[in-house]
Write a structure and sequence with these properties.
Jelly Rolls; 13 helices
C-alpha cells in the first residue's frame, strides 16, 4: 500500500514525532507504515492500527497524539448579506486603504486554512472575471493530483480555476466546494474579498491580495471516536493542519512574496501553555521573514468549560470539589486535568447516584478502566506524572455514557510547595453532544490552541458597534502566564459574502487583512523588507487603542483594540 492511501485511510493511525530517524533505517524496519517530514525533526507517521497499541497515554506520549480542532464560529451564519464598512472603519483598515497610504494587500498573498472556498463568488475574482486565487489544495478530494512534494489531496492552480470559471460547469473541472457551513468562504471574504461596486456591494480588508486556500479534510473516524466528537460536527486533525502550513510556507519561498495565513480553528485540548508541536511550528513560522500566522482566541470565554483550583501551603483544607453538570443527551466527553509542578495531586470522581472512584493518583503512569454498577457509565483514566514537554502532571478522563446530573471531581493536593494549581478543561462547545459545564467555572485561561503559542498572533473579539467585549471570546492569560490574547478586533455580526458571522474566527480574519496591508507597506513598498509576524504584532500592539480606565495588558483584550491607522500615525511621529 502506498503512503497516499495510508494517509487517508482510517485503518492507519497518525502520530506526530519530534525526533529524527534515518530514512534508510526506517525503510529496513519491518512494519506497515510510512512517514512524511514537515521540517527538520518534525515528522508525521502513518502506521497500521492493527500493529499499534490502543490509544492511551500509557502507550503513547501525549505530545504525539494528534488533537482535533473545530471551527471558531459563534452560532450560524445569518442570511443577512447586507454590507457596511463599520468593522473596516473601526479597525482603521478602511482609512489605510485610501490615499495617501492606499494599502490594499497588493503584491501579498492571503492564505486560508479552513473548510474550503466558493471560488466562483465575485468576491474572489478580478473585474475582468478572472480568479484572484493562486491555488486551492483540497485535502479531501483524492481524485486529482496532489501538490508537488505532498502525498494526498488534489491541487488546482489559477490556470485551471480560470478554465473552470469560463466553462458552463465549473465543478466538473475544479470540484471544490465549501459545504461545511461556508466558514472558509466567509473568512476569506472578510480578509481579502474584492472591491465590488466601489465598496457598496462588498469590500474585504485586503481586496488586491492574491489568495491561496487549503480545504482541510475531516479528521479520521478513529480520532473522532477517541475524542468523542459528535457525529456530523466539523472536525479537523493536527496532522493535516501541519501539512497545510508547510504547503503555504512554500508559496512564500517560491513566489518571494509576503504571506499572511488565517486559520479560524481552535481546540481546548492541551496544556494551554503553547507547548504542542503545532503551536511551536506556528511560532517558528511567525519568526520567519515575510510570514505571519493569525489565530483566533476561541469562543470558550463563557462556555463554563474551565475550572481552576488553587491551593496555598498554609491553608487547612487541601481539597476542592469541581462540580460538572452533565446534560441529557450527552453521550460522552473527554476531561483533561493538569497539575502544577512540583506539587502532587489525587482526584476522586463521584457520580450523580453517589458511586465513587477514589484516589486516582497523578503519580502513576497508567491507564485504568472503571465501570459503574448502577449505570452504564464507564470512565477510562489515563495518568502521567510528567507530561513530556510542559512537565506538568496530567490526568485524562474519558466519560462514556455519563449519567445526567451533577458529577463531582474532588482534587486533593498531597504536597504543596508554595501555591499549587490544578486546571480542568472540557472540550470546545462543538465537541460536546449535550449541555455540559462546570457549576463554578473560571472564564480565564480559556484561549484555545494554537492561539496560546508563544509567538502566535492571537486575536480576541469585541462588539464593534457597542465597544463591549464579545462574551464568548476566549480570555487569557496562558497557563504559564504568557500574555494572550495580543489584541482584539471586531467579531460580532461581521459582513461576509455568505452572510453575517460572529466569533473570534471572524476577528482573526479581519486582523489578517490588516497584516496584509502592513506587509504591502513593509515588504512590497520596501519600508521594512525583512519584517515577520512577530514584528507586525508588536507594531499593532503599539498602535492599539487602550482606554485609560483599564489596566493593560488585560485578559480580555490583550494590549487593546486593533487600529492599523494609529500604528501608521505612530510611525509617522517617530
Amino acid at each position: 500500500m502506498d503512503c497516499r492511501t495510508r494517509i487517508v485511510s482510517d485503518d492507519y493511525a497518525d502520530l506526530i514525532v519530534d525526533f529524527d530517524l534515518e530514512e534508510e533505517s526506517l525503510n529496513n524496519t519491518a512494519g506497515d507504515f510510512c512517514f512524511y517530514q514537515i521540517e527538520d525533526n518534525l515528522r508525521i507517521f502513518y502506521a497500521n492500527r492493527e500493529e499499534l497499541p490502543k490509544l492511551s497515554l500509557s502507550e503513547y506520549r501525549y505530545l504525539y497524539l494528534p488533537v482535533c480542532y473545530g471551527i471558531m464560529q459563534s452560532g450560524d451564519i445569518s442570511e443577512d448579506r447586507s454590507f457596511n464598512t463599520s468593522a473596516l472603519e473601526e479597525t482603521g483598515i478602511l482609512r489605510v486603504q485610501r490615499p495617501p497610504l492606499a494599502l490594499t494587500g497588493a503584491g501579498c498573498i492571503f492564505a486560508c486554512i479552513d473548510t474550503g472556498i466558493n471560488y466562483t463568488n465575485p468576491a474572489f475574482r478580478r473585474p475582468d472575471g478572472s480568479s484572484r486565487i493562486l491555488a486551492i489544495w483540497d485535502q479531501e478530494n483524492q481524485d486529482g493530483t496532489p501538490p508537488e512534494g505532498f502525498l494526498y489531496g488534489s491541487e488546482y492552480r489559477r490556470g485551471v480555476i480560470n478554465e473552470a470559471l469560463n466553462s458552463d460547469n465549473p465543478m466538473d473541472i475544479v470540484p471544490v466546494r465549501d459545504i461545511t457551513g461556508l466558514h472558509g468562504t466567509a473568512l476569506a471574504s472578510i480578509a481579502a474579498g474584492s472591491n465590488i461596486d466601489e465598496g457598496n456591494t462588498f469590500l474585504g480588508a485586503a481586496p488586491d491580495a492574491d489568495i491561496v486556500v487549503v480545504k482541510l479534510k475531516q479528521a479520521k473516524p478513529y480520532l473522532r471516536e477517541y475524542y468523542m466528537v459528535p457525529e456530523g460536527t466539523p472536525c479537523y486533525q493536527e496532522t493535516d493542519i501541519l501539512t497545510a502550513l508547510k504547503y503555504i510556507k512554500g508559496f512564500a519561498e517560491t513566489f518571494k512574496r509576503p504571506v499572511c495565513i488565517c486559520m479560524g480553528l481552535g481546540t481546548s485540548y492541551g496544556d494551554h501553555g503553547g507547548n504542542s508541536l503545532l503551536e511551536k511550528y506556528i511560532s517558528r513560522l511567525n519568526t520567519l521573514r515575510n510570514i505571519a500566522v493569525v489565530l483566533p482566541a476561541g469562543n470558550e470565554g463563557n462556555a463554563g468549560h474551565h475550572y481552576r483550583a488553587v491551593f496555598n501551603k498554609n491553608e487547612g483544607a487541601l481539597f476542592r470539589n469541581a462540580e460538572i453538570r452533565v446534560g441529557e443527551g450527552t453521550s460522552g466527553f473527554v476531561l483533561e486535568i493538569w497539575g502544577s509542578v512540583p506539587d502532587f495531586f489525587r482526584i476522586s470522581v463521584r457520580s450523580p447516584g453517589g458511586e465513587e472512584i477514589r484516589d486516582i493518583s497523578f503519580r502513576l503512569n497508567s491507564t485504568r478502566v472503571y465501570d459503574f454498577v448502577y449505570s452504564s457509565t464507564r470512565i477510562i483514566a489515563d495518568t502521567l506524572l510528567v507530561e513530556q514537554i510542559s512537565g506538568q502532571q496530567l490526568v485524562v478522563l474519558h466519560f462514556e455514557n455519563p449519567t445526567p446530573g451533577i458529577w463531582t471531581i474532588e482534587v486533593r493536593a498531597e504536597e504543596v510547595s508554595t501555591a499549587a494549581t490544578c486546571d480542568m478543561w472540557l472540550p470546545i462547545r462543538q465537541f460536546m453532544s449535550g449541555d455540559t459545564y462546570f457549576l463554578e467555572p473560571s472564564p480565564y485561561i480559556t484561549i484555545t490552541a494554537p492561539g496560546t503559542g508563544r509567538y502566535a498572533n492571537c486575536v480576541a473579539a469585541y462588539n464593534g458597534e457597542t465597544g463591549g467585549l464579545f462574551q464568548e471570546s476566549g480570555r487569557g492569560f496562558t497557563r504559564e502566564g504568557g500574555i494572550k490574547p495580543d489584541f482584539a478586533a471586531p467579531g460580532v455580526d461581521i459582513p461576509s459574502v455568505v452572510g453575517r458571522i460572529s466569533g473570534t474566527g471572524a476577528a482573526a480574519a479581519l486582523a489578517t487583512g490588516a497584516y496584509l496591508q502592513f506587509m504591502q507597506w513593509a515588504v512590497i513598498e520596501a519600508n521594512s523588507p525583512l519584517v515577520n509576524g512577530v514584528e507586525i504584532k508588536n507594531y499593532f500592539i503599539r498602535g492599539a487603542r487602550r482606554e485609560e480606565s483599564l489596566n493593560w495588558p488585560n485578559r480580555e483584550l490583550g494590549y487593546g483594540k486593533l487600529d492599523i491607522y494609529s500604528t501608521f500615525e505612530l510611525l509617522r511621529r517617530l
